Amino acid sequence: MPLVELQDIGRAYHLEEQEIHALRSVTLDLERGEYVALMGPSGSGKSTLMNILGCLDRPSRGRYHLDGRQVAHMSKSALARIRNEKIGFVFQSFNLLARTSALENVMLPLVYSPRLSSAQRREKAKVMLDRVGLADRMKHHPGQLSGGQQQRVAIARALANDPAILMADEPTGNLDSRTSRDIMELFDRLSEETEITIIVVTHDAHVARHAKRLLVLMDGLVLRDTPDHEEAIAAIQQQAY
Fold it and tell me: Are strands 87-91 and 165-169 parallel, antiparallel or unpaired?
């Protein structure tokens, strides 16, 4: 059974008297351990698809099974539980708490894990920070860390609950080119060493080249679903003219 099953997913928004179709009809499966890039120009639907995949939003129509559970029309509270259990998020702006240490930032998702004691949560957060190469920065606050180090803390936090899916929204958008390569190499290692399904939303062709499968969206539809990076990039360029 695929980890993710989308069947005829659509998402419409009502703006004044207009109905805007951000997603028109998306049908796809994602297996455990896949490394996927969502690409497309602004307005293509990639952010809407990410929000639905990440259980941050619900589709207007269609079916979404996540790890065998129908989640498309769950309540907000039920979706919040699914997110905490199954999905880790990494954002362009890091979204770290400024007044807490790297260790405390990584511990945050574990607060909702009643099975773990405070000592166990702390130990697990240390393991996650070591995993991303920041064992020596645990007591540092975000303001004392470089952009790349802050993103590594964010990745460690996203991994803290052992998610089935790691979702990264423009994860290198605020980083220089060298640091961006370091972060993407970390994603590569996670893909090789774990069964986490990695979904990266990006407009950057260099970032997308790290993925093994590329989904190109255009006008709310999946225009290409391919492992061929050149085909995906060419499809985007063709639509630009």
Answer: parallel
Among 200, 158, 231, 173, CA closest to 47:
200
Tokens, residue 164 = 């089935």
Q: For residues 161 and 108, what is the distance between their CA atoms, to the nearest angstrom?
A: 10
Residue 241 has pLDDT above 80, yes or no: no
Strands 35-39 and 197-201, sheet pairing: parallel
Report the side by side order of strands in the sheet with 87-91.
87-91, 165-169, 197-201, 35-39, 213-218, 221-226
Please give the biggest Cα pair distance in the chain: 57
3-state secondary structure of 61: strand
| CA–CA distance, 92 with 226 (Å, rounded to integer) | 25
* Spatial distance between the Cα atoms of 112 and 81, rounded to a whole number of angstroms: 9
Where does the pLDDT of residue 16 fall: very low under 50, low under 70, confident under 90, or very high at 90 and above?
confident
> Helix, strand or coil for residue 102?
helix
Angle separating helix axes 118-131 and 147-159, nearest 10 degrees: 130
What tokens does 148 get?
């790349």
| pLDDT tens digits along 157-197 | 999 999 999 999 999 999 999 999 999 999 999 999 999 99
- Determine contact, residues 83/52, Cβ cutoff 8 Å: no
Report the predicted TM-score, pTM, of the whole model to 2 decimal places.
0.94
